[in-house]
Amino acid sequence: MTIAIAHLGPPGTYAEQASIFYANWLSKNTEIKGRLFPYPSIAQSLQAVAQGDVQLAVVPVENSVEGSVTMTMDTLWQLDSLRITLALIMPITHTLISRASSLDEIKTVYSHPQALAQCQGWLGLFLPTVQLIPCNSTTEALERLESDLTMAAIASSRAAQLYNLPILASGINDYPENCTRFWVVSHTQAETVNYKLLSNNSHTSIAFSVPANIPGALVKPLQIFAQLGINLSRIESRPTKRSLGEYLFFLDLEADATDSRIEYALAQLAPHTEILKIFGSYGILPIGTLE
Questions:
Q1: What pLDDT score was predicted for residue 189?
Q2: Which are the contacts of 211, defined by CB distance < 8 A and separation ≥ 6?
Q3: What is the spatial distance between Cα 262 and Cα 276, in angstroms, rounded to a whole number?
Q4: Pick from 27, 35, 73, 99: CA 20 to 30 A from residue 227's CA?
Q5: What is the mean pLDDT of residues 183-192?
Q6: How far is it, in rounded angstroms, from Cα 44 to Cα 15?
Q7: Residue 109: which of 87, 126, 93 has the closest Cα?
């Protein structure tokens, strides 16, 4: 059996690298083969799953240095038919790629906003006057480097090899312990892989909006988890996009949704929320276990 896996493209992105690792792990542990399909944006990768064009998407959700990938969170909230089935943790090492003969020749640096932010200290020290230009992905601008010797891009060493481009500097991310968490997302009605046989469901992700922006609107939901001894490994707020000051709240709970405490907590949580979405329970795999 072969399944289609969407990821952020063009080829050479970190999302593609995570997808390759995942597909290799899948083929070693099941009889399922993965075929990768690049998409121009994270949102389009998730929309492809919702529309049934692919079975899975591997999308970045959080970086240890720069925090959440907001496009993933916003799109997951907007699409009701998606669920998280697995999380992958991958170390990230950025390189500066260019055909310039030295750093002095570089006038512009292109990359995904997350990558630019993860290297801002290095860029400020070694390229303080260059123009930083955000792209949809770390590899979007690589093909343009061939014809412009004043351009550079921040991407992986693997991307440099794929596009046959030289690396001017390696390990330019500001913090060596730089990791990104990816989610493997499927359609709610699809049971492509029985992950419970492959890894324990250690986390559950949910999101909710509150009925009104009043004192205690967030405290009351959070108290439910505290009283039941359920640890929150992440909490993030995002604007509802309806009105200034209205927010959605994304929570990662350290427990399986079938845990009696989680079932009770979600039942208690519902009256305090306007909309409550349960994205699924899943295990977490370090990328090193996929090789």
A1: 66
A2: 217, 273, 274
A3: 14
A4: 73
A5: 81
A6: 13
A7: 126
Considering the domain architecture, whether residues 131 and 182 belong to the same structural domain is answered as: no
**Residue 184, strand partner residues:** 58, 86
Output the CA angle 172-176-182, nearest 5 degrees. Answer: 95
Could you tell me which of 41, 59, 56 has the C-alpha nearest to residue 5? 56
Q: How confident is the model at residue 61 (pLDDT cuts 50, 70, 90)?
A: very high
Q: Tell me if 36 sits within 8 A of 20, measured CB to CB.
A: yes
129 and 248 within one domain: no
**Dihedral of alpha carbons 256, 262, 263, 266, sign:** negative
Query: For the domain that residue 147 is a member of, what is the CATH number?
Result: 3.40.190.10
- Give, rounded to a whole angstrom, the gap between the first and last alpha carbons of the chain: 21
Is the pLDDT at 154 greater than 80? The verdict is: yes
User: pLDDT at position 243, please?
Assistant: 82
User: Residue 204 above 60 pLDDT?
Assistant: yes
pLDDT recorded at residue 290: 45
Mean pLDDT of 34-48: 97
In angstroms, the CA 36 to CA 30 distance is 17
Secondary structure element (H or E) that encloses residue 89, with its range: strand 82-91
The fraction of the chain above a pLDDT of 70, given in percent, is 95
Q: Quick check: 126 and 103 in contact, CB under 8 A?
A: yes
| Pair 101, 211 in one domain | no
Task: Look at the chain and report how many structural domains it folds into.
Answer: 3
Of 206, 210, 207, 212, nearest to 274 (Cα)?
210
Residues 213, 193 share a domain: no
Structural domain of residue 240, as residue ranges?
203-282
Q: Is residue 282 predicted with pLDDT exceeding 80? A: yes
Instruction: For residue 182, give both structure tokens.
Output: 């990816």
